[in-house]
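I hope you will forgive my troubling you with a question about protein structure. You will find the record immediately after this paragraph.
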Amino acid sequence: MSVIYLGDRETGKTSLALELANPNGQYVKVLSPDYEGLKALLYDDDEGRTRPTEAAQSTHDRSLDIEVVVPTRRKTIYTEWIDTPGEIWRPTWQKNNADQWNQFLTVTQSCQGVLLVVPPYREIVSQGADINPDDFVTQQQWIRRFDRWVEFFQNDCSQIKHIALCLNKADLLQGVDLKREAQKLAYHPQNSRMNWMQRNDYIFKRFFRPVRRQIAQLNQRTSGVSVKCFITSIYNRELLELPWIYLGTFLKGNS
């Protein structure tokens, strides 16, 4: 099975991917590249942080092979990881960069599922001395960005069957205790406290209500698609693994 790992730049996708590759996982493991290889590629030891995606490159893509343990078997998710600049959605950019746009469409149209990483918006981020509100878009800006993704999924990804929406940097959200949230939401094959529908309802009502109309459009107008909401953070492995377990559970593919 194949999945697109998507999101605007500066949403934390690189940090999430590197942490996912950490060998101390539970039900999800990055098979290739391995942790040390990925860290060498993505992490700057001098800066003590992941390297930012080069802004001069219009689109940036990599591949990850991810193994997910689901009940009774293991599945491999072949993942196309793509960074996009904001201007990629402008018709003028698509016209002036037709080769890159068509290459982007070719990759995305070959996949069955999407894992979309979105940042938190300013109004739900905790207020603290070490947090600069200007680092986050406003709710209205966040909604406009989400509108672009919805239009893209509806017009250019009609073959997609499952979309995992991940609100990243959950450790920065007001009123969120990662450990407590993980206790509610975590996946356990035999005794999970919630099923996939209950997890989605819980997260949707808390964090995704500003785009409820857009999510309803995706569920209703795109034939056979299922949209599920998640929160993710590099500081909690259980929350980090959930969207991948969901995709591994429901997408048809290799085992």
Q: What stands out?
A: The chain has a mean pLDDT of 87. The beta strands are 2-6, 28-32, 43-44, 49-50, 60-70, 73-83, 113-118, 162-167, 226-231.
